[in-house]
Amino acid sequence: MSAIERPAKNVGGLERQAQPQLTRLFSTTSNQFPEAVSMPSRKSGRAFLAAIAQLPKRLFQTVFRVVPYPTKPGLIRIGNPGQSSPVLVTTNYDLTVRRMCRALKELDCYLLIAPAAGVDVWCAATGGRFTIDSVISVLKTSRIGKLVKHRRLILPQLSATGINIFELRKRSGWSAVFGPIRAEDIPSYLASRRRPESMTRISFAIPERLEMATAMWGSLSLRYTLFPSLIFGWKTAPWFVLILAVISVGVALGCFALPGKTFVQKAGFLGLFGIIGLVGMRLFPWHPGASFVIQWTVLLAFASFLVGTAFPSYSPLWPCGYSKLFYGACDLRLAVVEDRCIGCKMCDLVCPVECFTLTGNRKMVFDNPEICIGCGACLIQCPTEAIINEVADEHRLQTAHG
After folding, report:
1. Contact at 8 Å (CB) between 202 and 181?
2. Which tens digit of pLDDT belongs to each residue from 13-35?
């Protein structure tokens, strides 16, 4: 085993402690354990202790998900892979690697961990950290080409925003396909080698919304609690953090139902209830003072604004306003040039929502622009450049003509 290779057991956590396929890489003999203690009970105890030891890291990754958390790039052998076993690729974000290992624990395969600054797949690919160079780098350093007789990679679908599979093949000699969006669908995909539509579309169910609400709350609390504390004193800090938590969860759970066109309006609607309650308390004999009402009104308004502006960047279904505001990302107004389209459906295969439809004349049309999240995967992957961004084209024309 080369120095760059490592068993999935080392990547961290309870799931790999309990995987029989992976623990075979570290065989132990029965005489290492006292006869009075059975092997299963000893393993269960070690697994429990390992799970407890991992709790702080898992809590940190859940609450502060936006913080990069890299693990070592390289090759992970899962099970007993052979020369024909599939080769999957992901980024070196620790949480992603652990979830991939958990999803693949019953399989025999290779998992390549590409260097991507410890960021998750979608953010790393869109932000230019998970690129063709990243994939080529791990292909070379892992020497995976000597372990398999095929030259086929399975990339995560959400990497389509940054990795052009046609260019990857030209530069590396490895062909690539996009696998399912969710790691738990990979075993079914590998068994059938087919991706039904359910594997190619993103979802935003209640557990996913609560997970993102927790991450958003952690990020906003870390960055903005200082401001109300400086104005009203440090005693307001825990109350402001609590307000952020309540509004974050409320917006996440009610993102489809709350009134308002923007999420600032949706979050403001929740904050308004709190403000109305504060004003209503003034009607009671034991009502709080005016300064208390003003202070809490400011806290509610500020928290509502922060959650409303941040929520789209923590959701997979709405374009991120931060990208345009802070990074200068241009608007997208996509269109399909019919004469260039060859009907390969690549745009539809990488679209995480459902923006494209194949017409009777075997041409793709961009017929659902209202649900487009602006990820740009179709622009990157179209082999004939049939998909264009009309906003960018107009900007180039204006620049060219002064």
Report:
1. yes
2. 333 333 333 333 333 333 333 33
Give mean pLDDT, residues 386-398: 68
Greater pLDDT, 50 or 251: 251
CATH tag, 5-200: 3.40.50.11600
Q: How many CB atoms lie within 10 A of CB 109?
A: 20
Q: pLDDT tens digits, residue range 212-247?
A: 999 999 999 999 999 999 999 999 999 999 999 999
**Strand 356-358 versus strand 364-366 pairing type:** antiparallel
Q: What is the pTM of this model?
A: 0.77
Give the DSSP per-residue string, 265-304.
Answer: HHHHHHHHHHHHHHHHHTTSTTPPPHHHHHHHHHHHHHHH
- Name the helix (H) or strand (E) containing 261: none
Contacting residues for 366 by C-beta, under 8 A, at least 6 apart = 334, 335, 336, 355, 356, 372, 387
Three-state DSSP class for 346? helix
> Hey, CA dihedral for 94, 97, 102, 106, is it positive or negative?
negative
- Quickly count helices (H) and strands (E) in the chain: 18, 10
User: What integer is the mean pLDDT of 95-124?
Assistant: 94
Q: d(Cα 202, Cα 337) in Å, to the nearest integer?
A: 26
Contacts 24+ apart (CB under 8 A), 66-69: 66/215, 66/219, 68/93, 68/117, 68/118, 68/119, 69/93, 69/94, 69/95, 69/118
Share of the chain above pLDDT 90, in %: 60
**Integer Rg of the chain from CA:** 25
Distance CA 156, CA 174 (A): 15
Predicted local confidence at residue 324, as pLDDT? 52
328-400 shares the fold of 5-200: no
DSSP letter at 70 equals B
Beta-bridge partners for 357: 365
Domain extents in the chain: 5-200, 206-315, 328-400
Please give the Cα distance from 262 to 254 (Å, whole number).
13
At 186, list the tokens: 């990979």
Please give the structure tokens belonging to residue 31: 């005489």
Please give the class, per CATH, of domain 328-400.
Answer: alpha beta
Supply the DSSP string of 228-247, one letter for each residue. HHHHH-GGGHHHHHHHHHHH
What φ, ψ does residue 139 adopt, rounded to 5°?
-60, -40
